[in-house]
Amino acid sequence: MIELLAEPWQYGFFQRAMLQVSIVGVLCGLIGCFVVLRGLAFIGDALAHAVFPGVVLSYLAGRSILIGAFIFGGIAALAIGLLSRSKRVSEDSAIGVIFAAFFAFGVVLISRQTTIRRDLGSLLFGSVVGVSNEDVIATLIIGGIVVFVLFLFLKEFTLIAFDATLATSLGYPVFRLDLALLMLVSATIVVSLQTVGNILILALIVTPPATARLLTDRLDRMLALSTAIALGSGVTGLYLSYYARSAAGGTIVLTATACFLLALVFAPDHGLLASRLRGRHHVHHYHPASEPPDATQNHDA
Amino acid sequence: MTGPASSNAGSLLVRDLEVGYGAGFALPAMTFEVARGEVVGIIGPNGSGKSTLLKGIARVLPLSGGQVLIGGQDIGRIAGRVAYVPQREDVNWDFPATALDVVLMGRYRRTGWFRRPDRASRALAHEALGRLGLDGMGDRHISQFSGGQQQRIFLARALVQEPLVLLLDEPFTGIDAANRTLLHELIAELARTGVIVLMATHDLDEVSSICSSVCCLNHRLVAFGPTATTYTPETIRATFGGQIAVFS
Question: Rounded to two decimals, what is the model's pTM?
């Protein structure tokens, strides 16, 4: 067993991939909680697609894909923030239209190049085994900044996710805080691209927090669990992909999905099994009958 | 305490207030003044602008004109001290938070950036839950409470803001008789300490029992004044446009 775990470490590419996957796991697990709680999953997907032309352009220019992705990610986050503010167009449709167009632009750019076609897969689905030392260092720095800013404004991001109206009435700059959160999501997506690629990044952002939410009702525990699940899925998935000779990104996402399915069935309070058992014993965890004053009016409002 | 000079100290002045609500609905300019310790009942038919007025004063909706002043100061400068209690349907009760977490949110502005609420704030939050009959339930997840209890969690959150002005949007929805009395006493007690309470309500009995003033809306300000002289069958008929039978 230990030999199986130790064997791939003799390769530099595996060491770098493992570091990269770990940083990205922590980052996605944390930021993902706020993506889920603030209802930004669709916007996150749009952002992931919107950075694609940036990736292609930097590839064509022979630069690190981080540069192009960052520029397009910033533009996209700003555009989404502004769109969500104007009441003229339905927000969802507007975001859908614009970011499908961004992605299509990337596809057209690629289709005009004959040399790039064989790398299309690695651009769309990531190639974590191909990351360089510089990539890992850049990811570590950007990831560190994202986590630092997230914890700096943890209280405010939580407040806005639960009750933006209260935040407004307390005098918080809600729009600017939302924009800051979008920027953090955008940065997370950009540095995660090489691990899982444009198409699958959303899975790594949404699946771990969704799994964690099934396991706990507390935000602090949800943050910790989500991070652990994303990190664990990344490390396990990378090992599996090494031995199964499968694509790392896809294997990592499937590992996370397996965690989600396990939690969905076996979670102590929210799991299918638990609610099935509860139904049989007529014990309603969610509306405990032990509340003297209001117990008779659970069906009010 | 009813002289013009003293009533002005710390009073709420709504001057030419216009509230925009997208491109469609808006409330035309209205002006009124509320002295400290008054409890104002805002009545009117559905869609007459009761919530809109409260949201305008709370700065949750943008103003298209006018001002809201407290003791001569713009309300934006004391934003944390104006507590707005929305209808409980406005938030997601599945959010991973306990009752105590939600009540503590009322202290966030005071706590300041980059800090967690301190021990004193936590003590205040526990006390507020106790005042609303939710003693010892602070550690429960918010989805485990009934509708009436969730409404009271919101009220506890407003209390820890130590409000100068308390804005309540249909506070008695889903509240049973025992807790209705508890809320009446709480509102009266707050008023005694000088808090200005504005309360949108459907229940006209509530107005005669706890409100010192009444604000009648029907897409515009129909009447405003002390309950004793303003709350008459004539004004009620004018407010509800003859849709209501008045038995006196």
Answer: 0.88
B183 within 8 A of B171, measured Cβ to Cβ: yes
248 residues of chain B, pLDDT tens digit each: 333 444 467 899 999 998 875 555 567 888 999 999 999 999 999 888 899 999 999 988 888 889 999 988 888 888 789 999 988 888 999 999 999 999 999 999 999 999 999 999 999 999 999 999 999 999 999 999 998 899 999 999 999 999 999 999 999 887 888 889 999 999 999 999 999 999 999 888 889 899 999 999 998 899 999 999 999 888 988 898 865 555 54
Q: Comparing C-alpha atoms, which of A122, A297, A113 is closest to residue A193? A: A122
Pair type for strands B39-43 and B63-70 = unpaired
- Domain hosting A115: range is 14-282
Residue A298 is assigned to a structural domain of this protein: no
Angle formed by the axes of helices A65-85 and A52-60, to 10°?
150
| Rg of chain A taking only CA atoms, in angstroms | 21
Please tell me the total count of domains within chain A. 1
Contact A162 B84 (CB under 8 A): no
Question: In whole angstroms, how large is the CA radius of gyration of chain B?
Answer: 18
Question: Is A192 within a domain?
Answer: yes
- Token pair for residue B237? 């008929």
Chain B contact present for A224, CB below 8 A = no
The CA-atom distances, in angstroms, between B208 and each of B30, B82, B201 are 23, 25, 12
- Counted residue by residue, chain A has a size of 301
Is A5 within a domain? no
- Check A293 against B176: CB less than 8 A apart: yes
Helices A52-60, A91-111: axis angle to 10 degrees equals: 20
Beta-bridge mates of residue B73: B70
Q: What is the Cα–Cα distance from B108 to B114, expressed in whole angstroms?
A: 10
B163 neighbors B81 (Cβ within 8 angstroms):
yes
Q: How far off is chain A from B223, nearest CA to CA, in Å?
A: 27
Q: Do A169 and B105 touch (CB under 8 A)?
A: no
* CATH number of the domain residue A133 falls in: 1.10.3470.10
